[in-house]
Design goal:
Blueprint: H1 7-14, H2 20-27, H3 29-60, H4 63-70, E1 73-75, E2 78-80, H5 95-105, E3 110-115, E4 118-127, E5 130-139, E6 147-153, H6 164-170, E7 175-178, E8 193-195, E9 198-201, E10 208-213, E11 218-222, E12 225-231, E13 234-237, E14 240-241, E15 252-254, E16 269-275, E17 278-283, E18 293-299, H7 300-307, E19 314-319, E20 326-331, E21 335-338, E22 341-342, E23 360-366, E24 371-376, H8 388-397, E25 400-406, E26 414-416, E27 419-420, E28 434-440, H9 443-450
Parallel strand pairs: 14-15
Antiparallel strand pairs: 1-2, 3-4, 4-5, 5-24, 6-28, 7-26, 7-28, 8-9, 8-20, 10-11, 10-20, 12-13, 12-19, 15-18, 16-17, 16-18, 21-22, 21-25, 23-24, 23-25, 26-27
């Protein structure tokens, strides 16, 4: 008879030889007890680790941090869901590598380095034997993380205008360029504009814009916001925010950023004043926009449906999903380069009137994370300007994988280190609605200023 606790038993049962370790283990009861103790200790350690892993989200996290991370960001009656930052690992370049890349990209050009990670390039290009003066600034935040890039409006309200130089100087910028289009009579930006996750104006004509993402990267796409008002009676679409009316059937939202008063309501429309989410007033006349207030301007039927049997109104505004992590968005257009290919969609974006040779402003970005801003001088003997297609060719030739046109003509102005670098319409630049500025801020000081 074979004892069930012997080596022979296991060999006969499994039909295989037992290794020396197991053989010694089966023969020695004290040895068995010793290893059993080890197994029990290992099991207890594993159990403890598992329990810690389960309990950590419930007990170990700071509950205030969880609450802050999950709550929406409320911005002047606009609500943006706080994004989850899934930023990829980004390659870090040295200043020396940055300089070598600049020299390689712009041979025989006048190059100055404004600060670490910022290069200003001046060159003349001949097109059909005619000269074109070009100013280019490349900015790389991988080289210099202290660089801050953001759009900036001309004044406290949207209906303001100022020069690029003044906007840059008022905000301590080292570089600035005119950016989005605007209504000349008022200065209100025409197209999407979001600064520090605050939606100032909505998109028009499905035009392209550039988004500045939380992780320091960029996205270029047609800009759309999902905008709605909701009450106990349901959800109602908002067609735009702080923009001139295009169709009489549109429902528009006006915030205090628009100005002191909302526009007068057109025929068969009403203005509805909301203060702290409460309906305060309905009128066809302009209504004063104060703190924590906004006006919904819509056809009378829509206003009646929104306000029926309710006194609470809420607004929800979100960018499209691929831009949910955007900190800033500024739209202009048309596209110049899309996915590394020349792509000038002027018809789709309704830009038929700006096709000729003109002074130009443009923005793009490269695969290595460099942001590129460009001005083209025009309407003068020393520089004839560029067409949109010529500008697209230039942006692609210097390495932009995506690029778009900014407002041009008399608006084109590039500010570098205290002065206007291009031959602008005026020596100080023409008054504009908004600009894109670059500042260099010490990280410690920046954090302290935010407290």
């Amino acid at each position: 008879m074979i004892n069930s606790k012997t080596t022979q038993y296991y060999q006969s049962f499994f039909g295989a030889q037992v290794n020396p370790f197991l053989s010694d283990y089966l023969k020695n009861k004290q040895y068995q007890k010793k290893w059993l103790s080890y197994l029990i200790i290992l099991f207890l350690i594993s159990l403890a680790v598992t329990l810690i892993g389960i309990s950590k989200p419930l007990f170990a996290y700071n509950t205030d941090s969880i609450k802050i991370a999950n709550e929406p960001v409320t911005i002047n009656s606009t609500v943006l869901e706080r994004p989850q930052n899934n930023s990829p690992n980004r390659q870090i370049y040295s200043q020396n590598e940055f300089i070598q890349n600049i020299k390689k990209t712009y041979p025989k050009s006048d190059i100055t380095y404004v600060t670490k990670g910022v290069a200003h390039i001046k060159k003349v290009k001949y097109i059909n034997k005619k000269p074109v003066k070009i100013n280019i600034v490349e900015i790389n935040q991988n080289v210099n993380p202290n660089l801050k890039i953001k759009p900036q409006i001309a004044g406290a309200k949207l209906n303001s205008k100022s020069t690029v130089r003044r906007i840059a100087q008022n905000n301590g910028a080292i570089v600035g360029i005119n950016a989005g289009f605007f209504k000349p009579s008022t200065g209100v930006p025409l197209g999407a504009l979001m600064i520090d996750r605050k939606v100032l104006t909505g998109p028009i004509y499905n035009r392209v814009g550039i988004a500045f993402i939380d992780d320091g990267s960029y996205e270029m796409d047609y800009i759309n916001f999902d905008m709605s008002a909701y009450s106990s009676n349901g959800v109602f679409k908002i067609d735009n925010i702080n923009q001139p009316r295009i169709l009489s059937t549109y429902t528009l939202l006006y915030t205090p950023d628009w100005g002191k008063l909302s526009p007068v309501a057109p025929k068969n429309c009403y203005n509805m004043l909301i203060v702290n989410n409460n309906i305060e007033k309905i009128s066809a006349n302009p209504i004063e926009l104060g703190q924590n207030s906004y006006v919904i301007q819509a056809p009378k039927e829509i206003i009646s449906n929104i306000a029926k049997n309710t006194d609470k109104i809420y607004i929800d505004i979100k960018p499209q999903k691929n831009l949910i992590n955007a900190q800033h968005i500024i739209a202009a257009g048309p596209y110049l380069v899309k996915d590394n290919q020349i792509f000038v969609d002027y018809k789709q974006e309704k830009f038929n009137s700006i096709l000729g040779k003109n002074p130009r402003s443009a923005i793009g970005y490269k695969q290595d994370g460099s942001l590129v801003i460009v001005t083209i001088d025009g309407r003068e003997e020393k520089s004839v300007g560029m067409t949109l297609f010529e500008l697209a060719n230039l942006m692609k030739s210097i390495g932009c994988i995506n690029a778009m046109n900014f407002d041009g003509g008399s608006s084109s102005a590039l500010y570098v280190n205290g002065k206007i670098a291009n031959s602008a319409h005026k020596s100080t630049g023409a008054p504009v609605s908004n600009a894109l500025i670059v500042s260099e801020v010490n990280n410690n000081e920046y954090q302290l200023s935010k407290l």
